[in-house]
Amino acid sequence: MIQSFEILGKFDHESDCQKLLYAPLNQKLTFRETNLYKVEYEGDAAAMEAFVRQVLLDPISQELREGGASSFEKSSFVLEYGMKGGALDLEKETILGYFRSLQNPGFSLTKLTLRKRVYVFGNEANEAPFVRDICNPAIHTWEVRRAA
Q1: Which of 3, 9, 79, 140 would bridge 135 by S-S if both were Cys, CB 3.0 to 4.6 A apart?
Q2: Which domain holds residue 28?
Q3: How many CB atoms lie within 10 A of CB 79?
Q4: In the chain, how many domains are there?
């Protein structure tokens, strides 16, 4: 089974996109950034969700949304990116190492995929500078989804 979890900062707010880019934009755009975890597993769904809530979520400063749907429908586009399969992902390795150390987790973790989501807000936002400055083709895979 596959389940997706998006983690958002409770106290985060839209910020100026210039923080993300090397060259200035000719328009004012803002962004929000989240983490997306796709968990492929076998076994007890409640045990898997408890693991996610315990290991990946800080309940004080973060909120968790299940299902992988877009968290901000008013964004112009979403840039979702993550590490290629052969690239070293230290966060992923730490999570998997912790999982392997558990005596009886109640489920088996068959695959874990970590992605960052950058939601960009503003009229007629162009994704090209974001892909160019955020994504490294040597280590990242990415996709851009435009608002419907």
Answers
A1: 140
A2: 2-146
A3: 22
A4: 1
